């Protein structure tokens, strides 16, 4: 007990609003890390969702 999870929203379903925001951020060319932070989701989650929706996410160079 008492173990803190790194992400509170572990495995939560994406809401239509979040998906819309993800699409907007991706179109603006926002970086994966910035999108993850803006949506309070893990980078892995954002990456997986973007792949599902066939979105290109800018990688930080």
The largest sheet, given as strand count, sense and whether it forms a barrel, is: none
Poorly predicted tracts of residues: none
SSE succession: HHH
* Distance from first to last alpha carbon: 39 Å
Characterize the structure shown.
This protein is mainly α and 61 residues long. Helix content is 49%, strand content 0%. The protein has three helices and no strands. Helix 2 crosses helix 3. The longest helix has 13 residues. The radius of gyration is 12 Å and the shape is globular. The N and C termini lie far apart (39 Å).
In brief, what are we looking at here?
With 61 residues, the chain is an all-alpha fold. The protein has helices spanning 16-28, 32-38, 43-52. The model has no long low-confidence stretch (mean pLDDT 83).
List its salient traits.
61 residues, mainly alpha
Itemize the secondary structure elements and their pairings:
Layout: H1 16-28, H2 32-38, H3 43-52
Helix pairs in contact: 2-3
């Amino acid at each position: 007990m008492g173990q803190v999870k790194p992400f509170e929203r572990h495995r939560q379903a994406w809401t239509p609003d979040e998906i819309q925001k993800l699409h907007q951020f991706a179109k603006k060319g926002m970086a994966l890390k910035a999108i993850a932070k803006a949506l309070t989701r893990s980078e892995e989650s954002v990456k997986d969702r973007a792949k599902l929706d066939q979105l290109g996410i800018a990688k930080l160079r």
